[in-house]
Every structure is written in structure tokens, then in C-alpha cells.
Design goal:
The chain is α+β, with helices and mostly antiparallel strands and 74 residues long. The protein is built from one helix and four strands, in the order ββββα. The protein has one domain (16-73). The chain has one helix spanning 61-73, and strands spanning 16-20, 23-29, 36-42, 45-51. Bound molecules: zinc ion (ZN).
Length: 74
């Protein structure tokens, strides 16, 4: 079971799954902290993980949502 790189909560099923070149990509959205991350598999071996919480996915919607949420606290 994959873990969220941000809060280490366990994920069940990927939100989306697709092929990216020679990789199989599994996208997860953390139900606990809302972080989005992607696992890249090659021949059923996990090669690397990109996560939105540390900017690994670049600017995506999650970042904006986080910023908006942050704004309401101010
Ligand atoms: Zn999380």
C-alpha cells in the first residue's frame, strides 16, 4: 500500500492510472491532507514518486487549493 509522502497516510486505490512512455503511472490524492502524488512504475517496480507537497509535480491545482485554504486562515 502506498503512503502519502506528506502525511504518511496509507492510500487504497489510485485515483487515475495511465501509461507514460515506458512507465506505468498511478496517481493518488491523499484523503487525509489532500496532497497529490504519482508513482512511476517500470516493469512492476516502483522507480520514483513525485509529490505536490514539495513541488515535485510543479504548479497544479492542489497547490492553488492549498493557497486558498491558507488565505482563509489569515
Ligand atoms: Zn497526505
Amino acid at each position: 500500500m502506498p503512503k502519502c509522502p506528506n502525511c504518511t497516510a496509507h492510500m487504497k486505490e489510485p485515483d487515475k492510472e495511465w501509461d507514460f512512455g515506458r512507465f506505468r503511472v498511478k496517481m493518488y490524492k491523499c484523503t487525509k491532507c489532500g496532497n497529490q502524488f504519482r508513482e512511476y512504475f517500470m516493469e512492476n517496480t516502483l522507480k520514483f514518486v513525485l509529490s505536490a507537497h514539495n513541488g515535485g509535480l510543479g504548479k497544479i491545482r492542489v497547490t492553488k487549493e492549498t493557497m486558498d485554504r491558507h488565505k482563509t486562515y489569515q
